[in-house]
């Protein structure tokens, strides 16, 4: 994945139209028993004030949550 500037004035984003998950390469080719397409993998991205990705976490297993402590630590590090 390449770093990419993203303009944003909020802390969180939804990907209703699936454009972001496709652009960031975090969609399953096929998901579940029905072979659903366009389903995003569970993932976390933290961007700096310039919109550059400084933290990325992605899992292939939708049952595995992100390590919240690591995410918070990165946020604290970036805000210092």
Walkthrough of the structure:
The chain has one domain (19-79): Glutaredoxin (3-Layer(aba) Sandwich). The chain has helices at 19-23, 68-79, and strands at 43-47, 53-58. The two termini are 26 Å apart. The radius of gyration is 14 Å and the shape is globular. Strand 1 (43-47) and strand 2 (53-58) form a beta hairpin. The chain is built from 2 helices and 2 strands; from the N terminus they run H-E-E-H. Strands 1-2 form a two-stranded antiparallel sheet. The longest helix is centred in the last third of the chain and has 12 residues, at 68-79. 2% of the residues are buried. With 80 residues, the chain is of the alpha+beta class.
Condensed summary:
This protein has helices at 19-23, 68-79; strands at residues 43-47, 53-58. The chain is an alpha+beta fold.
Q: Bin the helical content.
A: 10-25%
Number of domains: 1
Second-tier CATH architecture: 3-Layer(aba) Sandwich
CATH topology, by name, is Glutaredoxin
Count of extended strands: 2
Report the order of strands and helices.
HEEH
Low-confidence stretches: 1-10
Given the structure, what is the number of helices? 2
What is the overall silhouette? globular
> Structural class from helices and strands?
alpha+beta
**CATH class term:** Alpha Beta
